[in-house]
Specification:
Layout (H helix, E strand, L loop, with lengths): L3 H11 L10 H7 L3 E2 L5 H7 L7 H9 L3 E5 L5 E5 H23 L8 H12 L4 E2 H9 L7 H11 L2 E3 L13 E4 H5 L9 H12 L4 H8 L4 H8 L4 E4 L5 E4 L15 E3 L21 H4 L8 E5 L2 E9 L2 E6 L5 H18 L6 E3 L2
Parallel strand pairs: 12-13
Antiparallel strand pairs: 1-3, 2-3, 4-6, 5-6, 7-8, 9-10, 10-11, 11-12
Helix pairs in contact: 6-8, 7-8
């Protein structure tokens, strides 16, 4: 049997959080199978917490040079992924997105020719990237009686649309504008993406895990059959609650006594969102303090490997809210990590750390 602390340390090792790694940002993005990115800048902090010497310009250049992109993927949320991964992950997640469209919009789109909407939307985007409002307005001229916002959303759900720079480029601002992944990257989606490869990569980044965990992360159903096909090549473990966990042979499992340094995780960090049972990193009682009623996921403080508080940054100020007292040494480590975050995000400014 693997204990809860064993599971915690194994997951942190996969997530590059037991130590900062000397790894190119693109390699880290691919290892993590992307970073959740509803907001433009959390991925920068997600990489800062995992990589040594990471500078925001490295990720900004990857966006501008089209090596990474932001688009709707797992769980119907925006992720920042490598260009190559966008072309394999989107076809795998598309059936779930299509089901969501029909369940969420129902009668509003029942009489609509969705293929015609997609074709018209692709024609509109041939002239270059468009904001959602502009794309919807173009389509509304061809589909009278349908809300422009609904037409733009249909395109976003049924077509792999990437959010193009300057959106999410560090130090810049810009409206969200869309281009098709094919036109932006000059390549077509993978016609035969492998769900087996998806499961292996999930385990490499988030394992050991149950089938339910893999489905919670991906938003996909039917992964039990995929895991059963892979069973002969996987390691099986018994989790702290008696459930069967799957893992890759040779994947790091350092044991519950491995030291886990304080880390300030980015808002929307996938570590908190990628398992059906999240107690390996956060107690159930603390989840409402981190994930708000309107779907925001706050930045969190890891102490001894588990979420023990939240943090927010306002310019050159980091405010920490701890859920329970910590030791003096742990408080000092939190302050040091907060100071490092401010040196990363607001260099040259007078820094202030509050709440710890």
């Amino acid at each position: 049997m693997i204990t809860l602390r064993d599971l915690n340390r194994a997951t942190l090792a996969r997530q590059l959080l037991l130590r900062r790694h000397a790894m190119p940002a693109l390699e880290a993005v691919e290892h993590l199978v992307g970073l959740q990115a509803q907001a433009p800048f959390p991925p920068y902090f997600g990489l800062w917490s995992r990589l040594s010497g990471f500078e925001p310009g490295e990720l900004a250049r990857l966006l501008e040079e089209r090596h990474v992109v932001r688009l709707v993927l797992m769980r119907g949320t925006v992720h920042l992924v490598s260009a190559a991964d966008s072309l394999t992950l989107r076809p795998l997640t598309q059936p779930q997105l299509t089901r969501y469209l029909h369940s969420a919009y129902g009668s509003r789109i029942a009489a609509l020719d969705l293929d015609a909407v997609v074709a018209a939307g692709r024609r509109a985007l041939e002239g270059g990237p468009l904001t959602g409002a502009a794309l919807g307005a173009r389509l509304a001229g061809e589909f009278p009686g349908v809300k422009a916002a609904d037409l733009a959303q249909i395109m976003r759900i049924l077509v792999p649309l990437v959010q193009v720079p300057p959106r999410a480029v560090w130090g810049r601002s810009g409206q969200t504008a869309y281009a098709t992944a094919e036109s932006w990257l000059g390549r077509d989606p993978d016609p035969r993406p492998s769900p087996e490869t998806l499961v292996r990569r999930y385990l490499a980044a988030f394992g050991p895990a149950t089938v339910a965990d893999a489905q919670a992360w991906s938003g996909l159903t039917g992964l039990r059959e995929v895991v059963e096909r892979l069973r002969p090549e996987l390691v099986t473990l018994t989790g702290p609650d008696g459930r069967e966990l799957f893992d890759l042979p040779g994947a790091p499992r350092p044991g519950g006594e491995a030291p886990a340094p304080v880390r300030l995780l980015a808002p929307f960090d996938n570590l908190l969102l990628s398992h059906a049972d999240r107690t390996r990193v956060i107690a159930d009682a603390d989840r409402p303090r981190v994930i708000t009623v309107n779907g925001q996921v706050l930045g969190t403080v890891l102490v001894d490997g588990f979420v023990r508080g939240t943090w927010k940054r306002d310019k050159a100020v980091v405010s920490v809210e701890l859920f329970a007292p910590v030791t003096g040494a742990q408080a000092e480590e939190i302050r040091a990590e907060a100071a490092a975050l401010l040196a990363f995000a607001a260099p040259g400014s007078a820094h202030d750390i509050r709440g710890v």
